[in-house]
């Protein structure tokens, strides 16, 4: 069943109104008609089965038949602060991180990030990234679409780290030196509902100044194991660890 993420104003009592891309997808792409059923998710992450009552090109109406008791979100909120990687890798990271339950992704322009995003192109890129996140959330039956934030510098990111319950940086040197106990130890003290910020370096890793900056801000450098993972693997591995810890070990 197709899944659509709608703003609060699209819900009025048990009536649902879809416009724009969603209406186009239902009417033109899926060629749905009255009595067909879809799933609609609201901004608080609740999802319902909706029976279509009227399908026009630009507008589609439906009636809520049943609210669902879905539970496809991670029990912790995870923001992945991804050192800007080369080429289109970030698109793949966004897609896979969404499948793995990420709450938000913040691209971070780091010292060793090869790619320098042209501010004029950044807004267009962000729109594409948001679309990728939405499609991946639909495909993976998420109840929420991850937020894709604008590109920050590491300094800006650290300034916004205050509200997080735990801030970690996957640091390759921890991996190389065999100090693998940090992440398991830190996670053992984290409650469900906590907010976690996980910082991943770009292909070239963190500069020594960046690691000092992170440590000075009280951010824990942790190992992701003895192998050196590609930047696009590291964030996904981190999310997999969190899913294992908070969803499978329960
Ligand atoms: N250029 C670095 C080097 O040769 O040591 C490797 C950087 S690695 C390709 C990219 C990022 O993935 C790192 O900055 C780190 O955030 C993460 N990463 C990869 N392997 C890791 C590991 N074993 N432990 C912790 N972080 C790791």
TrEMBL record:
Say if the entry is tagged with keyword Protease: no
The GO cellular component terms are: cytoplasm
Q: Which BP terms in the Gene Ontology apply to this protein? A: rRNA base methylation
Q: What is its main location?
A: cytoplasm
Q: Which Gene3D superfamilies match?
A: 3.40.1280.10, Hypothetical PUA domain-like, domain 1
Protein family (similarity comment): Belongs to the RNA methyltransferase RsmE family.
Q: What does this protein do?
A: Specifically methylates the N3 position of the uracil ring of uridine 1498 (m3U1498) in 16S rRNA. Acts on the fully assembled 30S ribosomal subunit.
The molecule here is called Ribosomal RNA small subunit methyltransferase E
UniProt source species: Salisediminibacterium beveridgei
Q: Please spell out the taxonomic lineage of the organism that makes this protein.
A: Bacteria, Bacillati, Bacillota, Bacilli, Bacillales
- Gene encoding this polypeptide? rsmE
């Amino acid at each position: 069943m197709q899944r659509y993420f709608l703003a609060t104003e699209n819900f009025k009592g048990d009536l649902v109104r879809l416009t724009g891309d969603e209406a186009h997808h239902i009417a033109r792409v899926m060629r749905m008609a009255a009595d067909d059923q879809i799933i609609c998710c609201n901004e608080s992450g609740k999802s319902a089965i909706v029976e279509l009552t009227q399908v026009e090109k630009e507008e589609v109406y439906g009636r809520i038949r049943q609210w669902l008791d879905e539970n496809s979100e991670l029990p912790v909120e995870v923001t992945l602060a991804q050192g800007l990687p080369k080429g289109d890798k970030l698109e793949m990271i966004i897609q896979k991180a969404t499948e793995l339950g990420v709450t938000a992704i913040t691209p971070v322009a780091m010292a060793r990030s090869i790619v320098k995003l042209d501010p004029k192109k950044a807004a267009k890129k962000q729109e594409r990234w948001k679309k990728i996140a939405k499609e991946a959330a639909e495909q993976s039956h998420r109840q929420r679409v991850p937020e894709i934030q604008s590109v920050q510098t590491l300094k800006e990111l650290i300034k916004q780290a205050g509200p997080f319950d735990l801030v970690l940086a996957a640091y390759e040197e921890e991996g190389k030196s065999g100090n693998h106990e940090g992440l398991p130890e830190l996670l053992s003290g984290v409650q469900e509902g906590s907010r976690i910020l996980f910082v991943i370096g770009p292909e070239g890793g963190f500069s020594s100044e960046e690691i000092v900056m992170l440590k000075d801000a009280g951010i824990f450098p942790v190992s992701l194991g003895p192998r050196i993972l590609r930047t696009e693997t590291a964030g996904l591995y981190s999310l997999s660890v969190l899913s294992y810890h908070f969803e499978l070990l329960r």
